[in-house]
Amino acid sequence: MNRLGLGCALGLASLPLSLSADPARVTLEQASDGTWQLRRNGEPYVIRGAGGYEQLEVLRESGGNTIRTWGVEQLGPDASGEPLLDRAARLGLCVLVGLWVDHPRHGFDYGDEAALQRQRERILTTVRRYKDHAAVLMWGLGNEMEEDGSDPRIWRELEVLARLVKAADPDHPVCTILAGTYNDKVRAMMPHYSAMDLLGINIYGGAEGVDDALAAQGWERPYLITEFGPVGHWEIETTSWGAPIEPTSAEKAATYANAHRAMIAAKRQLCLGTFCFLWGQKQETTATWFSMFLPSGEKTPSIDAMVRSWTGVEPIHPSPVIHGLQADFREKTIAVGSQHTVTADVTAPAGAELQFDWQVVAETHDRKFGGDPEERPPVIAGCVVKQNGATVDLRLPAEPGAYRVFLYVRDGHGGGAAGNFPFKVE
């Protein structure tokens, strides 16, 4: 297999060095055989996307061509003062620009006409400000605001908003993003909301079945997978005390690759692209569950999986991979202050000089719903007794409670991996 090095020329003809400064006209066109195609200035555009707005140089070098944002605040300048859309255009990337639509679970009342009008004005202000920027690909009107999909007022308001956005900017499609397809929500939406151009679905476990689920609910138009990644912490096995068991870096990489392949190859050919999540780093149940980069910035095997998926090319420096962590107290309750050994099953290219960083971290007490911001739990000092690469002797915390053993592995070439498991002491 060919190899691709981050920082070297890719030879990817579909990625311009930068975008023209002129606004782009983006259209959806249906062929005589019923298939759909996204076109940008008349040319076919297949989305190879990532959710996030960090490490954009790495995204371009990895074969990606599009990013997705969630709200207007993410379009602001970075530390160097360069606004996000300008940075994307300079790198030849397009943006699915998120227009935040407020959620009932955050206190928004879809029966409050004054609040609805303020939201309409806020969204239109954003559209008018940015619609002529060359990096804008389409508008992402809302993200998971529908909850279980049973409130028709939300769908009707999205219809109003979509019509307003399209009147203000007829040159870019409107996409609305839902949390999965459960509860027959797409079928519930369709009688009330027809103005959007294509649907976005955020899906984790069961991503390979999205096309069949949409077909079963009567959706016959194009769609995007606007978030996908490892099995979510809400849909995975837990310990007896309720701690979700995070997949290994090897399992996550396989999930990204398999899900992307299945969704793009779905038989109806209505999926016009995918956005892996998260092209960045965040605390959500753990600091590593959805993060495609380590907290210190290294790329993980999940990014290598997307490089292979987007380009068919093997990275020159594949990240190390953690296949598992073994310990006699893994996912168990054990005595406070007891001493134990943990070993890691790690693979890396021949000659890689790996650095191992072992930590004991408190289980989060700030777990939120729907990706809302969480406070990162503290590292517990004094737990590492002796470390020898992939093996560590730990003294478990003296304070009763739930914790995790974390391992971060770095290769010195910008690659890394993370793994963890929960345990409890009493």
TrEMBL record:
Annotated protein name in UniProt: Glycoside hydrolase family 2 TIM barrel-domain containing protein
A GO BP annotation: carbohydrate metabolic process
Domain Glycoside hydrolase family 2 catalytic as annotated: residue spans: 113-229
Keyword set, alphabetical order: Hydrolase, Signal
Originating species: Synoicihabitans lomoniglobus
GO MF annotations in UniProt: hydrolase activity, hydrolyzing O-glycosyl compounds
Family annotation (Pfam families): Glyco_hydro_2_C (PF02836)
Signal peptide range: 1-21
